[in-house]
Amino acid sequence: QVQLVESGGGLVQAGGSLRLSCAASGRTFSSYTMAWFRQAPGKERDLVAAISRSGGGTYYADSVKGRFTISRGNAKNTMALQMNSLKPEDTAVYYCAAKTEGKYEYNYWGQGTQVTVSS
Questions:
Q1: pLDDT tens for residues 57-93?
Q2: Which burial class, exposed, middle or buried, applies to 65 when counting CB atoms under 10 A from its CB (0-12, 13-18, 19+)?
């Protein structure tokens, strides 16, 4: 099992930047595909970005391509999401998630961190 704790959310003006971090417990962090999801009020939880176990492969939703960067540090059991050029529509609760090898869905979740972008 893995426990995930997000940090780094907050209030920022449009055009600004934030860096989210996810700290994971356990000794097998490198065995998990990791991702960031977000959920805005009244909307479904959407995948924002994902990163492979080695960190060599990444995926971004079209809405954040060129603005967000996902990274991971397997030696320190951490993952990050650098968010630049933030827009009001990026406002949401952001969740860190982990997927066990062979699983179709993400099966471990953090508690979420609020990101609010003011116009």
A1: 999 999 999 999 999 999 999 999 999 999 999 999 9
A2: exposed
